[in-house]
Design goal:
Blueprint lengths: L14 E15 L2 E9 L4 E6 L1 H7 L8 E11 L4 E11 H7 L3 E6 L2 H5 L17 E7 L4 E7 L2 H11 L5 E2 L1
């Protein structure tokens, strides 16, 4: 759901963009300390400003070469003479995917393997108020079936790390 950076145009509506952090610097501006973050999505690169409160949080977890998702209003910046985005919300690309995740499906080859995923039964809602659905299909020589969990984002992230992205189907 992200717009390519080379299509970014001035708008009164918020848009979503994504990219890899190419630069990070902190400056003292008229509004106080702020961050200037460069992102590149392969089509274009931009720099955006993260003002005081947002910057205070952002600078604790961002790093160069990290993939990020940014939601904000595209505006023309008089200083750089380019369209940039004034962010309202920024999160890692992984967190953005998980926050919007409706379902995840994995396939396992035994009941013993299924037992290793018992932590998925801990249920919590994500930031948008729903729990991602996790479908696990068991297919072995003597057993087949499906198990469904409503789980937390933290558990989804843990699951993805355990099984690897190749074994996961997102919806």
């Amino acid at each position: 759901g992200c717009m390519p950076l080379d299509e970014l145009q001035v708008s009164k509506e918020n848009v979503c963009v994504g990219g890899v952090i190419s630069s990070i610097r902190q400056i003292n501006g008229k509004r106080g300390v702020m961050g200037v973050v460069g992102i590149d999505d392969g089509t274009h690169s931009i720099e955006f400003f993260a003002f005081s409160d947002l910057w205070a949080t952002l600078k604790t977890w961002i790093a160069p070469k990290m993939a990020v998702w940014v939601k904000g209003r595209p505006k023309y910046d008089d200083f750089s003479k380019k369209v940039t985005i004034y962010p309202e919300e920024i999160m890692s690309a992984d967190d953005a995917v998980c926050a919007r995740l409706k379902a995840i499906t994995i396939c396992v080859d035994s009941v013993d393997t299924l037992k290793t995923y018992s932590f998925l039964q801990q249920r919590h809602s994500n930031v948008e108020g729903h729990s991602p659905v996790i479908n696990i299909t068991v297919r072995s020589a003597n057993l087949s079936g499906n198990v469904q969990f409503f789980s937390s984002l933290e558990n989804v992230k843990r699951l993805i790390k355990m099984v690897g992205c190749k074994a996961v189907e997102y919806t």
